[in-house]
Design brief:
Layout (H helix, E strand, L loop, with lengths): L1 H21 L12 E5 L4 E9 L2 E7 L6 H16 L5 E6 L6 H4 L8 E6 L5
Antiparallel strand pairs: 1-2, 2-3, 3-5, 4-5
Amino acid sequence: MLRLLSKISVFLLVLLCFLSGCANEPNVVPTRVEGAQWDFDHQLQYRQKRLNNNKYYLEVIPNSKVSFERLSAFLFRRGYLICQNYGYKLELIRGVESFDYQRASPNLILPNLTARLECPKVN
């Protein structure tokens, strides 16, 4: 019985090591990451590009499972992660849906939700 418990504990230890290697690193600076990425919390794909020191271009790629509310909330949260404080300026460029677009244009394919993010300058 003792041998079985030690084998199980070794198996669990190895499994935990593998799972910890798959976890997202929370200390990754989001300003250094560019290109298409997947956000597991919001279940959406996005692109991020640094334009200069405090300006970024964000593009959220919608899918049929994600509502516009979640896409826009993601932009606000991503802006906070990148700038690491409030006071940033988020300018939506395109992809904003109107209140009744599904009734008015049921077959309309909306473009990706794109925005410019400007972080406040730190003195």
